[in-house]
Request: fold
Amino acid sequence: NCHGRFESTIPKYQSIQLILNHNMPARNAIVTDVSLETSYPGYQRFAASINHRGDYIQMISSGSIETPFRSYDRFSYVINHDATDVRNIRSVIETTTPMGAFVGRLNYRGDYSNLNTNVEVNTPIRGYERYILSLEHASSDLRDVTTKSTLTSPHGDFSMTFTYKGIPQQFQTSLAITTPFAGYDRFNLELNHDFVRSTKLATSATLT
Reply:
């Protein structure tokens, strides 16, 4: 802990005080508070705090900043992250500002062959209020792969779908993309390949 104070007869600088409290109560845990108080008009108090427990696998962390400036008087954040099960990961980040709250969420389930993940971002900014990105992937058998991704936004929805069926010598694959833009709202690509033997080869591609 640290405490310092300065006093004088100088106008507007009669008092300046700094207080610092720092503690590490356990492994991967930090608690810190610091404040600065002055007698100068418009600059009376500045403060910051951090309360953090955990590591990259599992953590709960929060903090805040205070200033005497109007429209910038307080900022704070909260992080809650849990990856103790690598097949089920959840994270939430919330930030509060004078503009409003910003929130980010991540949910992940699965593994490299079959997964479902979702990311959501919310903001207080008009026209950019909410974004959701999702991804689904299934490839339990390398001869049958499907991947779907979508983005939902205030400007419209975007999506991509990829499929693959077959083996290197004989397969069918497709890619479809959609957008909210008129005239560019859908694209499709299909590829069929057949190479059964060296004397027979058939490959076709279609783009629409």
The CA atoms of residues 39 and 199 lie 91 Å apart. The radius of gyration is 28 Å. The chain has a mean pLDDT of 91.
